[in-house]
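Table S2 (text version). Query chain:
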Amino acid sequence: MYLRGIITYDLLANPIYYQAFQYFSSDIANRADYIIDDNEDEQDDNAQSDLTRIVLNLSFLRRDELED
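Corresponding structure-token output:
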């Protein structure tokens, strides 16, 4: 037996999941240009992808880190 595919706990490293979550990594140049939301405020476009990353990592944080 052997492991195949993407071997990581980072769900967003897998194309299936980052497409499903409509996630755009922060290392993409001009990533706000790819993010389409339903408001006119262009300043909050990156927040969508940032929030996705944060929520998926909440289970790995200690309680004291969550309270800060």
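Notes on Table S2: Residues 1-32+45-68 form one domain. The helical segments are 15-20, 45-57, 63-66.
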